[in-house]
Amino acid sequence: MALTDFDLALFGGSGDLAMRKLLPALYNRERCRDIPSTARIICIGRHEWSREAFLTEVEKNAKPHIASGNFSEAAWNAFCARINYVALDAMNPASYQALVDAMRQETTGINRVFYLATPPSLFATVCHNLAACGLATPNSRVVLEKPLGRDLASAKQINEEVGRVFAESQIFRIDHYLGKETVQNLLALRFGNVLFEPLWRREWISDVQITIAEELGVGNRLDYYDTAGALRDMLQNHLLQLLCIVAMEPPVAATPDAVRDEKLKVLRSLKRFTPHMLVQNVVRGQYRSGYVDGVAVPGYRKEPGANPGSRTETFVAVKAEIETWRWAGVPFYLRTGKRMADQLAEIVVRFKSIPHSIFAQPNSSFQPNSLIIRLQPDEGLQLNLMAKTPGDGMRLRPVELELDFRETFKQPRMEAYERLLLDVLRGQLTLFMRSDELEAAWEWVEPILNYWEQEGIEPMPYTSGTWGPAAASALIGRDGLQWREESLPEEL
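The line above is the sequence of Glucose-6-phosphate 1-dehydrogenase; the predicted structure tokens follow.
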């Protein structure tokens, strides 16, 4: 679908997210000629820079994040020609006049998009100030970056305040994991093929594991991260959204509300935590010093500027259960952490073991079939089966059927923010959270936060470069299961 003309106002336009992700994503769409010739990008920041000074910052901080194979001097010059810069105090209504002057007043056929790459504490203020200066029109859209609140009450407040200015159909709550190619292919795998649907249920699936692991520490995000932690930063949004796509029922169509209705049903079906379940089914961890890729790294409490007594979690593992006919009794194990043994994001759907071996091998020697959906670093699908080894006799061993998207599809692939920005500009809401989705996710997560706070739960230490605290292995081990990296046969 071709884009119509637009003015994109990027609050936080001089920030890290804009420079690393948003501006490079928009440049890539420029290079592919997706952006209308008269569309404009207005970057907004607090620095009193001229346009030329800001473009120098873009050259220094955004350009290095463009892959060398994607760079074109002509496309870059055309892209920079679209960019304007406005110095603005987001808290001061009077300073919005500079933005009014920078945006086109004739809005016929022009979409206005306000991207708030700012702290959530500014969301309501910015939206009300946009309304006060007349910029929040019916053809406007607002994009909200995470974190969308710190708890249920703050999430509801954000929804209510932003909802006073913009209709729900104008609000795009972004989760960049939903823009990844493999997440799109998970939808295609489930609802574009008949192969797995009869097996996609409790009768045949043993468990589902969803992992987002990072080798990096907190880096320059310590100020934010120390007030958020892994549960707020990753599990409440990315991991729960992936769980929803795995577990949702087939929607009646691929329309925004049809898809989001089914995701909401999953969130509302998550089994609520009792005090006993919080002790047994949740692991909180924090990395200590160790080695990652052979390089010594400090512990979280020894990072520059860190609080030596910080209880912020850098790792969390949770056992979730979905109380529906399809999924009753199937555990969903979610985990995420920093300074882990590897960088990966994957979904592992493990099927049940064969009921009886007809071969001269015990059942225990048969690795259960599994479907692995890799989101990063390499996107692809892997199906693990048992097959006969060559030669005399009938001896079976695990084999892998693998689909590497880069090898199968040779055409260039869009990064997550490219796809999501295009969807915003087209007004396509399917990959964005609705307000009731956001609140349902917080309703399920909040008891964990309350329990940690009320009981003063200390995070369990784990060595950097490992797969997290031993308690995470015990969490899944109590069900007679293992995390995928722990269950791989030695010969693999």
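Note on the example: The longest strand covers residues 205-213. The chain has a mean pLDDT of 91.
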